[in-house]
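pipeline/complex-builder :: batch 7 item 3
reading input block
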Amino acid sequence: MKRKRMSRRKRSHILYGYLMIAPLAVGLGIFYFYPFFKVFYDSFHVVGAFNKTSWAGISNYAAMFRDRVMWSTLWNTLRYVIVIVPATLALSILIAALLNTGIKGRSVFRVIYFIPAITMSTAISMIWRWIFNGDFGILNFILSKLGIPAVQWLSDPKTAWITISIVAVWMNVGYEMIILLAGMQGISRTYYESASLDGAGRFQQFRKITLPLLTPTIFFVLITTLISTFQIFDVIYMMINSKSLAKEASQSIVLYFYRNAFEYSKKGYASAIAIFLFLIIMLITAFQMKMQNKWVNYDQ
Amino acid sequence: MKGIRRWIAMGLATVMAGAMLTGTAVFAEEANTDVAGEVRYAYWDDNQTPYIEKCIEEFNKVYPNVTVTLEPNTWDEYWTKLEAAATGGSIADVFWMNGPNITKYAKGEILMPIDDMIAEQGIDVANYPAGLVSLYNIDGAQYALPKDFDTIGVWYNKALFDEAGVEYPTDDWTWEDMAEKAKALTKEDGSVYGIGAGFDTQCGIYNTIYACGGYIISEDKKSSGYELPETQAGVQCWIDLMEAGVSPSEASLEETTADAQFLSGRLAMYWGGSWFLGAVKTSDIMGDIDVAALPSIDGKKATVIHGLGNCIYAGTKSPEAAKAWVSFLAGETANLISAETGAAIPALAGTAAAWVEGSPEMNLQSFITSSEEYSYPYPASANTAEWQTYEADCLKRAFSLDVPVADACTDLAGQMNGVLAAE
């Protein structure tokens, strides 16, 4: 008797649980899971203008692996990842460490560094586009005062991707810095106190205490920046127009996906690219999850 | 085709005459209460909202039971939104269309053919620029009547000409005249260039390709014209200007567009459309700017003509009201409003004069003359956007002087033919 009542209570408990997560689950279903399966479905079809769909088998995938531009955009994307992710991590750890000390006006600095994270990326891109303008930009003006000849930062295929990387790092650092700062403040003061009693210097404390104890946070930041950099889109879309000389050298894979889907009316082909990118990111993330035992320190 | 048009025109003339005899003139402001419904009207240029609102006011005097609701958009999102709305079936009843997109929408069966409307309403298509009427005629069916038109001219900065002691261009000048003037106007220190000779299609190579006797896309829309020596000559003439150093580099023109460089006084000449008048009028150097017709190449003149059309959604719930609105916009009242508000050059013959008279100090008549005497339609096929991407990719390498014109054009022709074959 008693047992039965317990289980009924338990059942209603479970029911309430489901009710509580329902809004989120429905939202995720409509806006994430349905589109995911739709993209998967479309990748095996030719989907032209106005969604006229016909079966295509694996021809989208076959075309993709033969598409020279797809491989060059994939290489561009990898290049962004290789440059932007380590630069973001190093800079945001450095800034977080500096802001974690007792320097004057640190709350002002925290706000200043965080501002890019809460500013629209389109607005940021517009400003940087002017800074980097080859004829009228302030950067070339300063360089010319130093006797360095003008560089066409955004339209030269050799420099465009570097310019994009600089802006992307600048945009990332504020947000990651806040997360790392929170991680640093979660480290107990007692470690530092005993270390300084033992005569460890500031740098040694940073290396032997802060960094190892911060690894869970660093791991989190690493995974999220890595995924977001693989999906880099808005900065390039805003700063380099679709008819630029530097388009091919700077285009990321998500941008190539977008152009196929919405500019060339090849949604089926675009879907195949999206699935391919999904698999790449999944593999890399899985690899990182596996590797984390080797360097991430969870016992504090 | 011509024959059919003549027949329609004759039929219309009869209808008009009949209407006049019975005293119910087509443009009489007698209320028509039979036609009723709601018409959603989508467009992308907010500068034209005053013109459209005025049109609605006049339209409602004739059709009091039709409600027109406006759906303004920005250019950047217009086509993405329109395609999504067309796919989902929630597209506006009447919307703006342009040359690069008409074939895609017509073949996608999104648009209603309006041949019967033209006949019913007594509209004479001969009163609109022929290049534009044919632009909106796909496989023998008419999908839109031009609302306005634009042609290309050479805008120039008189102050820079005076400073260099160079004579102003005249409408009968040649390409060689232009190249000489550009040379004389260019300053050594790079503060002033004679002309902006960067890659541009509608305001650049399309005009010179036609003037050289070439074409961009064949009439049956099956093959690219970029393999032809005439077409390549129309590209080469720009590269010659680039090599002569009378223009800022392609990279410079890419980062700061030619129109912006022209209005800031860095360029003495700029090839631009009649729509540029709006920007001229709001600029600081308006008093210094005038315009000339495009120069002739080996005695031949050519300009691209383009203009917007009003299209009706094939699945509209109120087809009669939509037709009434579209034919009103094609009529004299709406065209005169367009000229007076300065929104754009109205397409109906005889109504452009008001647009020209709006700025008597400038040679705006040259845009009208060129449209009548030597205008060529904007090249388009079903997937224009895709081959235009390759066009920019390939030709920009020639404009930045990295690749010879012939190589860039051959490369482009191959890619373009691939797209056209897949259509």
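note: Residues 200 and 206 of chain B are 8 Å apart (CA to CA).
queue -> next item
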